[in-house]
Specification:
Number of strands: 46
CATH topology of the largest domain: Immunoglobulin-like
Structural class: mainly beta
CATH architecture of the largest domain: Sandwich
Shape: rod-shaped
Helix content: under 10%
Radius of gyration: 48 Å
Length: 661
């Protein structure tokens, strides 16, 4: 019958001497002296192999057992029972035997195989050993500027020092704190640069300055570097190099997904060479899309800053603008995310968001040409180089002109006259005209005077079916749209006649038109309500064009006698209007003389007027050439018209006008 036994001087040695091992541990020994019967005061003289009733050969071998009765994990053996006990535990034996990590200590016994019936038997005395390992729960980079877009992607500059790393760790089983000061090796696996982080005894995290010595990135470039925990050692569950979690191998360490640092070296948003977009809305650049009298909308292709793209350190778009000046001396103004709330996070045009692709610049002067450049900067202040900033065609700065602050139209067929307010209904059928030359007068106001103005007209599509696009500017010139150059006859006054013979003036058809306003530096387009359009309207010149309808029936026409409408100028009626009828197309001159026959001012000087209609021309306000009001008295307005084909005078009248006190 097997008796109870124990081993004298039972002990853990080497890596396990402190009672802690990692399941990937290095080799260690468990030692003891003789195995004796478990009797009080037993000594080596009581060794089983020395007793007469058992003798040498009674114990045929011993096995080191972890968790007897529960797991019965065999981790080492000793076949000789006569020289004391030395059990060699090979490296990673706990892992090979399947000993799981545990928060509580395991019991370790020596199990003896005996010839006596009833064996084997475990030693009555035992040892305690902990089996656990380090689990890294998070790697956090902080300080040093930059952007932390998500837990796995960080953006830092090699030109800015101060980046630190925090490693959070715990015991894999039980989640406890470190036992003993534990060393963590964080490796930049891209260029094999190591940062040492120490987690103190009793703590769950350690902090260290990130080692950047040996990290290289070319100028104006961003490189992605992966980081991983490469080794853990020291502390209770540490091992010597090549054992445990100290194998220069990240696969032995439970840790989060790879953490990346995108290191930049003076790299601004966008690509290093071409402009940062290079695609639609236009190749290589930004695009002016619309304007009002006080605003211009600019569009561009956004940079790609979605992690792990190189522009994750994006900070703001910058919009540079100035009044266009051919001398190139006007100062630039700049708008970015810090200019106003409307341009920052949560605003209408969030320039802090890399996906933003447009913005409206407001507070501009009417009928003025501006230059624009779109740029971007990162959090380190690196800005897109001048040569790489998006422009309208990749080579020149974008130009755009604001609309006029006020444009009013008067339209007449020689009998019927429509003022600007009547065009608000956007319905041509409510403004019928006879099939005759159409006189269009435009009054244009802005901070800059136009150099030329054109009427751009097309069929209204009510029954013509000739338009392929609502945007009149998209139609084919001289096919489905037509341009008519206006004549300037006063500082803000322009007019033109659409001739009776033009194909647009076909009976029972609609006509629509807008104005093209040119200055010395740019062009803008307006319709009836452009000054009322909201900022950023897609095409503010074509949502309320001026429209009229050419009638099939013609009204009875009664030519006017030559006269002055309101021939007494008073404060309540301050304008005298020359009114007359032309039997033929002619060039008209209208001058004002005082009672002594001296010329005072010229209202028209050889201006073309269409024949066959009554004309109410530009009025006189009782002023001279310098626009100074004249004194009370009698004046004469001389109206002379010469045929356009042979120069024959067909009208030559002198009419009286009185300026009252």
């Amino acid at each position: 019958m097997v008796s109870s036994i124990r081993i004298l001087n039972f002990a853990l040695n080497d890596e396990a001497a402190d009672g802690y091992v990692n399941r990937y541990h290095g080799p260690f020994q468990v030692t003891g002296d003789e195995i004796v019967y478990d009797i009080p005061g037993a000594t080596t003289a009581d060794a089983v192999a020395s007793r007469a009733d058992s003798g040498a050969g009674e114990i045929t071998g011993t096995t080191l057992i972890v968790a007897p009765g529960a797991g019965n994990y065999s981790v080492g053996v000793d076949a000789d029972e006569t020289d004391g006990q030395t059990v060699n535990v090979a490296d990673s034996a706990f892992n090979v035997a399947g000993v799981p990590n545990a928060a509580a200590a395991y019991t370790v016994v020596l199990r003896a195989a005996m010839t006596t019936t009833g064996g084997p038997v475990d030693t009555a005395n035992n040892l305690s050993i902990y089996c656990n390992e380090i689990e890294v729960t998070d790697i956090i980079f902080f300080n040093g500027g930059g952007v932390d877009n998500d837990p796995a992607n960080y953006y830092r500059s090699l030109l800015v020092s101060g980046t630190q790393v925090r490693v959070n760790a715990r015991l894999l089983a039980g989640g406890g704190a470190m036992i003993g000061n534990t060393t963590i090796e964080l490796r930049d696996s891209t260029q094999n640069v190591i940062t040492i982080v120490t987690i103190p005894n009793g703590a769950n995290f350690g902090i260290a300055a990130l080692n950047t010595t040996g990290i290289t990135v070319a100028a104006d470039v961003t490189d992605t570097h992966n980081h991983e925990i490469y080794n853990t050692y020291d502390g209770a569950f540490g091992s010597a190099l090549t054992y445990g979690q100290h194998r220069n191998n990240a696969t032995y360490i439970t840790q989060p997904v790879t953490h990346r640092i995108h290191w930049e070296n003076g790299d601004p948003p966008g690509l290093a060479s071409p402009p940062f977009d290079g695609n639609a809305p236009v190749a290589n650049g930004a695009l002016f899309t619309s304007s009002t009298a006080s605003s211009i909308r600019i569009e561009w292709n956004p940079v790609d800053a979605v992690p792990p793209a190189a522009d994750g350190d994006f900070n703001t778009y910058r919009l540079y603008f100035r009044v266009y000046d051919i001398t190139d001396t006007s100062p630039w103004s700049m708008i970015d995310r810090y200019t106003a709330a409307v341009y920052n996070a949560g605003g209408t045009y969030d320039l802090s968001d890399a996906t933003t692709s447009f913005a409206d610049i407001t507070g501009l002067s009417a009928l003025t040409t501006y230059e624009f450049i779109v740029s971007a900067a990162d959090v380190y202040g690196n800005e897109v180089a001048v040569a790489n900033r998006p422009r309208s065609d990749g080579t020149t700065i974008l130009h755009a002109q604001t609309a006029a602050s006020s444009v009013t139209i008067t339209l007449s067929d020689g009998i019927t006259r429509y003022t600007d307010t009547l065009f608000s209904d956007n319905d041509g059928s409510s403004k019928p005209v006879r099939q005759n030359a159409i006189h269009i007068i435009a009054s244009i106001e802005g901070d800059t005077l136009p150099t030329s103005v054109n009427v751009i007209a097309a069929g209204d599509g009510l029954n013509q079916g000739v338009e392929s696009d609502d945007n009149i500017l998209n139609l084919v010139d001289n096919v489905t749209r037509f341009s008519f150059s206006m004549n300037k006859y006063a500082p803000n006054q322009w007019d033109v006649f659409i001739p009776t013979t033009h194909s647009l003036l076909t009976a029972n058809t609609g006509v629509r038109f807008i104005l093209e306003i040119n200055t010395t530096t740019g062009t803008s387009y307006v319709d009836h309500n452009s000054e009322l359009d909201l900022v950023g309207a897609a095409t503010p010149w074509d949502d309320n064009e001026w429209r009229f309808w050419v009638n099939t029936t013609q009204p009875t026409f009664q030519p006017w006698p030559t006269r002055i409408l309101n021939n007494v100028i008073t404060k309540s009626n301050p304008v005298a209007y020359p009114a007359y009828y032309l039997s033929h197309d002619a060039y008209v001159t209208i001058k004002v003389y005082d009672i002594k026959g001296r010329p005072v001012t010229t209202l028209l000087d050889g201006a073309f007027r269409k024949g066959g209609q009554n004309i109410k021309d530009q009025g006189w306000r009782g002023t001279n050439k310098a626009q100074k009001r004249l004194g009370p008295g009698l004046y004469y307005i001389h109206i002379q018209a010469k045929r356009d084909d042979n120069g024959k005078i067909i009208l030559n009248k002198m009419e009286k006008v009185v300026i009252a006190r």
